[in-house]
Amino acid sequence: MSLRIKTVVDKFVEELKEALDADIQDRIMKEREMQSYIEEREREVAEREAAWKAELSRREAEIARQEARLKMERENLEKEKSVLMGTASNQDNQDGALEITVSGEKYRCLRFSKAKK
């Protein structure tokens, strides 16, 4: 009888070891799958972050270009404004010259008339 008990106990221990080994292998596989999933998700997030940063850099560069263009337009407008703020007077000059004052400086221009046909 003791031999039968020993055989049953040995069989039980062997089955228990096999079940534990199978459980350990299952846990190892699940851990590997989870690690793979986490690595894939991290890669996806890193790719989206890189794309977002590239888009942000592109937009920042576009903003800088637009700001530079607007600055040039503003400078050109100021130059044009200073030219347009000049005054012209048609004084009764004996030589028929037109006097133009731009930014406090006076200029004399000769007048030309169209030829009569």
List the main descriptive attributes of the protein structure presented here.
single chain; 117 residues; mainly alpha; 3-stranded antiparallel β-sheet; 1 helix; 3 strands; 11% strand; rod-shaped; coiled coil
Spell out the blueprint of helices and strands.
Blueprint: H1 2-84, E1 87-89, E2 98-102, E3 105-109
Antiparallel strand pairs: 1-2, 2-3
The percentage of residues in β strands lies in 5-15%
Apparent shape? rod-shaped
Query: Helix segment count?
Result: 1
The count of β-strands is 3
Q: How many separate structural domains?
A: 1
Biggest sheet strand order reads 1-2-3
Radius of gyration: 46 Å
User: What is the oligomer described by this structure?
Assistant: single chain
Rounded to the nearest angstrom, the distance between the terminal CA atoms is 144 Å
Encode the helix/strand succession as letters.
Answer: HEEE
Helix content: over 70%
Question: What's the average pLDDT?
Answer: 85
Low-confidence sequence ranges: none
**Which structural class matches the secondary elements?**
mainly alpha
For the largest beta-sheet, the strand count, sense and barrel status come to:
3 strands, antiparallel
What is the structure about, briefly put?
By secondary structure, the protein is mainly alpha-helical.
Structural features, described:
With 117 residues, this protein is mainly α. The chain has one domain. 71% of the residues lie in helices and 11% in strands. The chain is built from one helix and three strands, in the order αβββ. The chain has a three-stranded antiparallel beta sheet, covered by helices on one side. The longest helix has 83 residues, at 2-84. It is rod-shaped, with a radius of gyration of 46 Å. This is Beta-mannosyltransferase-like protein. Keywords: Coiled coil. Residues 56-83 form a coiled coil.
